[in-house]
Specification:
about 130 residues, mainly alpha
Length: about 130
């Protein structure tokens, strides 16, 4: 049995009811290994939209990074991530800022209000950025 076949048997029940940290961790882990299981990411997107107000800086950045890494573009999710990121930008560490900026650029999703917010936050925290 292939991993995707096994995943099809269990993912749906597992994802429903997860909190924001678990959703972002699942998305991050699958993106890290390049597994773009579209039905899973559709459910993660829908669940994330329902609880976006509960997402902290790391969850917002991880979800954005995960979808961009897999070139998955769900505009309602990206819009919600952008708006939530703008509201919580003061909570973002340099890694969250850079991952969010990279994610939106990588999938060419221009959210005009978010870009100046990221730029201003980057200027304020430039000393804490770690060149990787």
């Amino acid at each position: 049995m292939l991993v995707r076949d096994a995943l099809d048997l269990v993912w749906h029940d597992c994802v429903h009811g997860m909190d924001s940290m678990n959703l972002s961790n699942i998305a991050w882990a699958f993106a890290l290994v390049g597994c773009d299981h579209v039905p899973l990411f559709e459910v993660i997107s829908a669940s994330s939209l329902r609880m976006i107000k509960d997402f902290g800086a790391q969850e917002l950045a991880n979800i954005a990074w995960s979808y961009a890494k897999l070139f998955l573009q769900y505009d309602p999710l990206l819009e919600a991530l952008a708006c939530s990121s703008m509201r919580r930008i003061d909570e973002f560490a340099s890694q969250h800022i850079s991952n969010t900026a990279w994610a939106f650029a990588a999938i060419d999703f221009l959210h005009a209000p978010l870009m100046p917010v990221i730029a201003a936050s980057s200027i304020l925290t430039v000393e804490s950025f770690d060149p990787q």
